[in-house]
Every structure is written in C-alpha cells, then in structure tokens.
Write a structure and sequence with these properties.
It contains eleven helices and 15 strands. The chain has about 400 residues and is an alpha/beta fold. One of its GO terms (molecular function) is kynureninase activity. Catalyzes the cleavage of L-kynurenine (L-Kyn) and L-3-hydroxykynurenine (L-3OHKyn) into anthranilic acid (AA) and 3-hydroxyanthranilic acid (3-OHAA), respectively.
C-alpha cells in the first residue's frame, strides 16, 4: 500500500497535473464531489463577464446575431459530441436532463408505436424513472418493466444509466445496446455520471442524454445535452414542439414545422449566461486526453479502496474497470459520518439510505488528496466524531 510520500511522487509525475491549476479550489478542502457538482474553472468568471458586459451590455439584442447566441444549442453540441463518441450535427444543448429524458423516451415511443413496454431500472437516478412513470401515465396503456427482469422482449424503449449514481457500477454499453436492438427495442443512455470521467461512446445508441455540471464543470444549473442518432433525424419527432425547434422560428407560422436534423430537438430560448460558463469549461476539455483521465480515475479509486480497507462496506464493484470515477461505501449512520468528514475538509456526499459517495475528478484531484481523504475518514470512524449531535439533523441537500 502506498504511503503519503509515494502519493506525492505520483502527483509529481502525473501527466494531468497541470490541469489542477485550471480550477478554483478552496484552501483546506479535498473536493470529492465532482460527480455531483464540478469545481469552478478559472476561466469561467472572465467568460461570463465578457458575455454580460461585452455581448449583452454592448450588443444588446444584437447578440443573438453577432455573438452567436442563437446557434449555441448546435455549436456547443458539436463541442460536446467528441466527449460522447458522436459527430457534428448529432447533439443539441439546452434545457435540463429531465426534459431531455422526456424528449428522448417520447420520441422513441413514437418510433415504435406497435410496442407498449418501457424498460427502465428502478435504481436509475430518480428523475429518469419519475419521468418515465409520468410519461407512461400520460399516454396510458404502457407497461413499465424493471431491468432486473432481464427481458427486452416487446419493449419499445430501454432507458438506462451508463454509471449507477449510487454505487458507481458501470454498465456494458455496447453489449446492452446490442441486446436491446436484437430485441427490436430502441435504447436511451443517460451518461450524466460518465461524461468527463471516462471515454464514452453512444454512437450505436438511439438517443443519449447528459448533464454538464458534474465532471464537465459547467456550473450549477448548466444546460443538458441530447444526442440523436442520425438514422432517426428524419423520422423522430420532438414532443416538446417549442419554437426553437421550428424549421423557421422567425417566420412565426401558425403551425409547427420541424427543423431538419437534430435542431428539431431544440425547444426554447437558450440560457445564454449558462452557455457562457459551459463554453469556458469546454475550453479545458478540448485539451484533455480522455484515456489518461480514465487511467488516473481508476488508480485514484483503487488507492482509496485500499486505504479504507475493510472499515466500511464497499458498495461499488471491486473491479476498477467495472465502475465509474466514484467509490461508494456503506455505513448505517452514513449521513452524520459524511457531515463530520466535510467539517474536516473532505467533501463527499450522502445518498439514502446508507451510502457515502466519493467522486474522483482526475483533473483536479491527486494521489495525496486521496491519501489525506482516506486518513481523515478513518479518523472520523476511529474517534466516532460523527456522533456529535450537530450532525443528526439533515440539511435539505445531502
């Protein structure tokens, strides 16, 4: 097992070490919550300032034409596309993950009108499962089948996450996609917990959705993205037929006429200030070698597991290749344990009923950080620091 000096040596040799300076990290904080909200890129404040003062402030409404605001859903989509194995004109950015899930599943159902089964995973991130429940209830006549039944027969659409948000378990995207297609179903992948943490390839999928505020560091409330396979561009319909998905939005026609290609999945006016923060983050990601990110991610996670040992139950897969950039541990009093840990400068988060999550963002987390985080966690457990009464009351966001 590595000691701290060996961890510092690994940090000094890390090919990604220079990227740490690209982010604002408070002194005394080890931030292991990149799987929930990524750290702030240094260039974001200046990029947003420029959008506010130079574009909005000076160009006013002219910014839609001269600052590129109107085209941002597509131009920014083309910048995200390489991170998910997609090509130009296949990704549209805007709205939220929940809305993108709704759009993708609704479009898939329309493409398989003869089928009445939706396969999901009850362990999916709640918004995914809730959206499917709501959509099925609205349409009526659909069976919701849990992935645990292992049956894609007669399914119209399969909705799954590449990385499980609780445990970090990684799905075999190529194999599951092939199985769904072999059964005649369409598949939608949620890559929120994998994009920016590993090499992602959704090119064989029918649709994919993802957020940009986790590992991609675009900030709270940053816009989500939707991938639509080119084979569906002509036939797939956008159930949310907003004016920005119209073929000619400024013709102001009385009836909806869908735009060609992925543009038809745009809905409404893009959130320009949020796009500015996203673009600043993508300036970093366009220089990042994802294979190195994945290699370091697995190494950091494995180091953490080794250092914690058997003090807590490992909820994540033991095989580093079978998990995302996240380690989940179980403790019956997980919430106060996490609160005590955060008070001592190590930031993770908690997911009910008993999971402590630690996300490893390789661009700004090093080996010595992981060593110190594990050491602090063991101290909290050994000294039972979590038993302090102040940790018993749960905050609104855990």
């Amino acid at each position: 097992m590595l000691d701290r000096d060996q961890c510092l040596a690994l940090d000094a040799e890390d090919p990604l070490r220079e990227f740490r300076h690209e982010f604002v990290l408070p002194d005394g904080v080890i931030y292991l919550v990149g799987n929930s909200l990524g750290a702030l890129p240094r260039r974001t404040a200046e990029r947003v300032r420029r959008t506010v003062e130079d574009e909005w402030g000076r160009q006013l409404v002219g910014g839609w034409n001269h600052a590129g605001w109107y085209e941002q859903p597509l131009t920014t989509g083309d910048r995200i596309a390489p991170l998910i194995g997609a090509g130009p004109g296949q990704v549209v950015v805007g709205n939220t993950t929940s809305i993108a899930v709704y759009q993708a599943v609704a479009a898939a159902l329309r493409l398989r009108p003869e089928r009445r089964v939706i396969v999901s995973d009850v362990r999916n991130f709640p918004t995914d499962h809730y959206i499917v429940q709501g959509l099925a209830g609205l349409l009526g006549g659909y069976e919701l089948r849990d992935l645990g039944e292992g049956n894609f027969e007669d399914a119209a659409v399969v909705l799954l996450s590449e990385v499980d948000y609780r445990t970090g378990a990684r799905a075999d995207v190529p194999a599951v996609t092939a199985a769904a297609h072999a059964a005649g179903a369409l598949i939608v992948w949620d890559v929120c917990h994998s994009v920016g943490a590993m090499e992602v390839d959704v090119s064989a999928a029918d649709f994919a959705v993802g957020c940009t505020y986790k590992y991609l560091n675009a900030g709270p409330g940053a816009p989500a993205f939707l991938y639509v396979n080119p084979r569906h561009h002509a036939a797939a319909g956008n159930v949310l037929s907003g004016w920005h998905g119209h073929a000619e939005p400024f013709a102001f026609e009385a009836d909806y006429r869908p735009a060609e290609g992925v543009r038809r999945f745009a809905v409404s006016t893009p959130h320009v200030l949020s796009f500015a923060a996203l673009e600043a983050a993508l300036d970093v990601w366009e220089r990042v070698p994802m294979a190195q990110v994945r290699a370091k991610s697995m190494a950091l996670g494995e180091l953490f597991v080794q250092l914690v040992g058997d003090r807590l139950e490992l909820a994540s897969p033991a095989d580093p290749a079978a998990r995302g950039s996240q380690i989940s541990l179980r403790h019956p009093d997980g919430y106060p344990v996490m609160r005590a840990l955060i008070d001592r400068g190590v930031h993770g988060d908690f997911r009910a009923p008993d999971v402590l999550r630690f996300g490893f963002a390789p661009l700004y987390i090093g080996y010595a950080d992981v060593y110190d985080a594990a050491t602090t966690l063991l101290e909290v457990l050994d000294k039972e620091l979590w038993r302090d009464d102040k940790y018993a009351t749960r905050l609104a966001v855990t």
